[in-house]
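seq as requested:
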Amino acid sequence: MNYIDTYAPHIDAIASLFETTFTASEGREEGALIGALARRLMTDTPPSDLRVVTAWDGGALVGAILFTRLIFEDPRPAFLLAPVAVAPDRQGEGIGQALITHGLGLLREDGVEIAVTYGDPAFYGRVGFTQVTEATVPAPHRLQFPEGWLGQSLSTAALAPLNGPAICVSGFNDPRLW
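struct tokens:
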């Protein structure tokens, strides 16, 4: 497996992977929404606020994750992991977990101290995320499923509460995504 964090030449393939993956699991409407979100994040987000990591096997794109900056009044750097996609025919092989672990390592190297995500606690718990409240990590929008708000410290310090409010990148500034 090769992990690549250069995404510009692969925007179409990455957006297509997200659309295909979410269509297979959530339906055509969700696939179109998440595919468009991934494309918008990659084309409209300043490079300093975005980290894209992809997994390739034998020249084929098999997984992709996006990290975008979350800004708080707090000075600690924080990024949001979302969305995450693994090709439907490759799911269950540990590709997603390995890709997330690799991506979190890159964030640590960049000095990022906090990672958060919004999803399945059972899946993301396997890579160090635990449930957090909005008192600990304020969300940019009202959460439809607060139990899916997850975070982890990427430093040696415990995850201490962040001073809000939270500001997300423009691509995530849509309440339908929360």
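The CA atoms of residues 60 and 130 lie 32 Å apart.
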